[in-house]
Amino acid sequence: MKKFIYIIAALIGLTGCIDNDLPYPVVVPHIISLDAVGAESVDIDYDECTVTIVFPETTDLRKISITSYEIDEEIAVPSIDIIGEHDLSSPLRFNIRTYDDYAWKIVGVRTVQRYFTVEGQIGSSVIDPANCRAIAMVGKNADVSNIKVTSLKLGPKGLSTYSVDYTSMRDFTHGISVDVTAFDLTETWRLFVEITDASVEITNVNPWAHEAYLTSIGTAGVENGFKYRLKGDSEWIEVSESDITSDGGTFVAHIKGLEQDTVYEAVAFSGADQSAVVEFMTETAVKIPNGSFEYTSKVAGTNYYKFYDPACGIEDCMEMFWGSGNGEGSEGVNGSANLGIVITYVDTEEKVDGKQSVRAQTSQLAGMLAAGNLFTGQFAGLVGTSGGKVNFGRPWTSRPSALKLYCKYSTGNIDIINSTPPGVTLTKSDYDRAQIKIALGTWDYKKYGGTPESPVHINTTDASTFVDFTTDASTIADGNLIIHNDGYHMNGADKVISETGEWTEYIIPLYYHSMDKHPTHIVISCASSQFGDYFTGCSSSKLWIDAVELLY
To answer: What are the CA-CA distances from residue 473 to residues 50, 318, 478 (Å)?
Structure first.
């Protein structure tokens, strides 16, 4: 979630007597971490000043134990004792005081799985928790006065009681009311069964580069399936049952092994009925520009490189796609190189593909760490000698399944510790580690502070500007690789012990938050020190990167 801190400094001239009405500075506090017993996830929205805690459906929101929290301003004092037991069946509202009061709230959310299915159902049921209503559809020949309910769950599993047993429900001519009680709270639900003329229909087609997801409605309880073919072919290919999932009378097929940029046809069938033929075209498997970094050129008047070559004659390598903290000097924005610290190099000795690779190399100036980096986007300027600003991202619309690249890593013990993220403790006996992140998203530069080309703006001196792609609302997909001196972590999985000091192939799977949305931009970020944004790491860490490509 994007976080903003607005700081106004008041400079007061001192002449003669000093009045006692000096304005207070504006210090906006933020809750930067919070944990509660049983929480599945915690999301902090700095724009709305809201902490949302998601719990399993069996949780009693009236008795929630908050075990820890952290506020980013030392002078901040909450108006209540946050740690302890609270009733989150309604939002918990309070103020945080610095020089003014700032209203915050903590919201508890219980994710209850609900369903209502009937025999001969067509399509998925409509479950409307806000209005306590559920609707199932049946074919035009069904008798709504004699319907068999096959499943019903409207409250927390094992804790809910129902005023009517679903096995006794039959006549839905005017709907059926049922009281559902859990945690001493009763909701009155209305259940309806309605007639539809549809028998089988493909309702959604979601084509990717080498696969497609087809959704259809059909009649539950009969044979349902899909067929597809290249447009122009005469023979249909039936989708395997193992690649079809169902929810009542809604069916989803996962078709694999397709060709990119190709037109296919598909039909769905339900019993003896067949849908109309639909056409779809697969996406293009777009390649990462200059993924082996063969095309580089020196910044004018300097001895360091930019990671494109206007004279190379290859369209997508003639303009900036990759950037680094070096900056572009006279050709763009000053970076670390203008302070005499080059942190990203071209290396012709170490490479996997072609004539060279990129070496991101952590350094330091007067005890201030500067992590070597390479990223899609553009360096946006220095913040004095204490940090830098980056606009991350490049325009992108295709949906890959993974990022593949080769890396080699050399590191040592952390020798500079400035700060760490909340919940992370490091000492100088710990080894540094490298980090590679990829994200696809629909980031609006007006909200995220960047530019239309590179929308996500990060200021390394202001942790409130950092974006967590695993929880960020505009992120569609993300992947993460941490490289240690003796192994690596992939997407939060257990550490794999391996030799990382030699060239190693890594494939980072992308976790999609949404399977239907299309991105507008891609972020790839490589850093020789994971906590370089916090100016913490080993000042001699080196990360080599080569042969970067997207898999589809």
So the answer is: 14, 33, 12
